[in-house]
Automatic annotation (TrEMBL):
PANTHER family tied to this protein: BLL2707 PROTEIN (PTHR40265), GLYOXALASE-LIKE DOMAIN-CONTAINING PROTEIN (PTHR40265:SF1)
Residues in Glyoxalase-like domain copies: 8-187
Name of protein: VOC family protein
Domain of life: Bacteria
UniProt-listed InterPro entries: Glyas_Bleomycin-R_OHBP_Dase, Glyoxalase-like_dom
Length: 282
């Protein structure tokens, strides 16, 4: 992937010390979650793996609170937007050359043990490069290089009862969508993002990242969603693509999850998904 052609690698939901409850919520929504993983940095996670991207529930266990509590903020919800890269090191120079602030001069390396469904145990290794938090008030935006992608995109983990197979849209609510989108326009050599109702859109392959006013975001994802503290930008909602809205609705009804049928999909309120509004569409 080059900086001219952005692709979403995954989205990250911060659940802090509520990993057990978050895993229960997402299982009720019909997602197949990976066994709990433990990063060398101290955080722990569960993943919902799709065809080419995934959703991560990230938190920590009590013994690691001193190491990582608060690193991703104190508010539960969508806290990370992560783009694909095949070479995190190669991004540093071109990003610095175009004035993009970074959290460090070099990518961060870390790993977590992964036990596959056949009992094989290996380390999944990653290198990440984070944009400067001062330029991304909605939370972290970074690049992730997978050194062992087969340990993430493992076929038995890619089948979900709700039929979801892709992240279709990430929505960031802002009082000023133009200003909020400026950093990604610079990162991806895009002088102009696509104007849409209530904001701007960055195309990311078959998906998109949209920067919208709160009013427009609420029109899509419901009135539960809010901006961040003091009116800061906030990642508020995901549109996920499913093979069958009928199957998704059946799972939600069976598990007693409240949802709203819309003309083009199913809306799961943020209160039912660890602070993230989910719109399922075919």
């Amino acid at each position: 992937m080059s900086l001219k052609f952005p692709l979403i690698d995954h989205v990250l939901v911060n659940v802090n010390d509520q990993l057990d409850e978050a895993a229960r919520q997402y299982a009720r929504l019909g997602f197949t979650l990976t066994p709990r993983g433990h990063h060398s940095l101290g955080s722990s996670n569960h993943l919902a793996i799709f065809e080419n991207d995934y959703l991560e529930l990230l938190g920590y266990e009590p013994q690691n609170a001193g190491r990582v509590a608060g690193v991703w903020g104190t508010q539960q919800g969508l806290a990370g937007l992560i783009f694909k890269t095949d070479d995190a090191d190669a991004l540093v120079a071109p990003l610095q050359a175009r004035g993009v602030g970074l959290m460090s001069e070099a990518p961060q390396a870390f790993h977590r043990p992964v036990e596959l469904t056949d009992g094989t145990l290996r380390d999944a290794r990653f290198r990440t490069l984070h944009l400067d938090l001062a330029t991304t008030p909605s939370g972290r935006i970074f690049f992730c290089q997978h050194l062992d992608p087969d340990l993430v995109w493992h076929a038995p983990w890619q089948q979900h009862a709700n039929g979801v197979y892709a992240v279709k849209r990430v929505v960031i609510a802002s009082q000023d969508p133009q200003a909020a989108s400026a950093v990604l326009a610079r990162v991806f050599e895009t002088s102009e993002l696509e104007p849409i109702e209530g904001g701007l859109r960055l195309r990311t392959g078959q998906a998109s990242v949209e920067f919208l006013t709160l009013a427009r975001a609420r029109a899509i994802f419901g009135t539960e969603i809010e901006l961040g503290p003091d009116g800061a930008d906030r990642k508020v909602g995901l549109e996920l693509q499913t093979r069958s809205l009928q199957d998704a609705a059946r799972v939600l009804e069976t598990n007693g999850v409240p949802f709203e049928r819309q003309s083009d999909g199913i809306l799961v309120p943020a209160s039912q998904a660890s602070g993230v509004a989910l719109l399922l569409v075919e």
